[in-house]
Design brief:
Length: 246
Amino acid sequence: MVDRSFADLSLAALYDSLNPWGPGDDFCLGYVRSARAVLDVGCGTGRLLREARAAGHPGRLVGLDPAAAMLVQARRHGSGVEWVLGDLRSRGWRAEFDLVVMTGHAFQVLLRDEEVRAALHAVRDALRVGGRFVFETRNPAARAWERWTRDRVREVTDEDGRVVRVWHEVDGTLAGDRVTFTETFDCDAWAAPAVSRSTLRFLAPDALSAFLHEAGLTVDERYGDWGRTPLTPDAPEIITVARRAA
């Protein structure tokens, strides 16, 4: 889950423990391995590109993230990768990449139509003709936010061996296609919990396709889960592989 909590250096160190490597990472890694030049938008701690480099990827790997604390983690563990602070609106590339990836539901932080349009046009510009854009967003029909409740507490251990508890709570009800929630980090050794408030947008498949088409991106593949099951109304994910046609 993408939110602003991880702008804090101590919390950024917890990210990989809270979000262990999974099927989505394997799915994206396959595309990264087959591309000569890759841009990872919202790269976080950079583990996807770090894994690709460790597995022998010989080409250009660029990780872009707006949170400096996340890039501290990326640089600490990953060499041979370009780590860039910023976002698609502040950085411009022109036909430099064969693949752009956007993982961890990062696409959902784009709340306004103009943000979505600007990001997708920037992705198109960054891709060479025929280049692919791989990303996922939660299927609104699956209503994942209904499971973001106070009783679903996760525990991780920080670098000092202390147990940190993490939970989410939805703030109000669905507002159009947007959900606002809080994420709380708490530890017995802390004076007070760390709480952030974030909003995510849940675009339906048709609306998502319309934005992609407007940006000059053609949908090549679409799945409902990381096992490449076809997208169905109740599938948990909308996993899209789009291509710059011209």
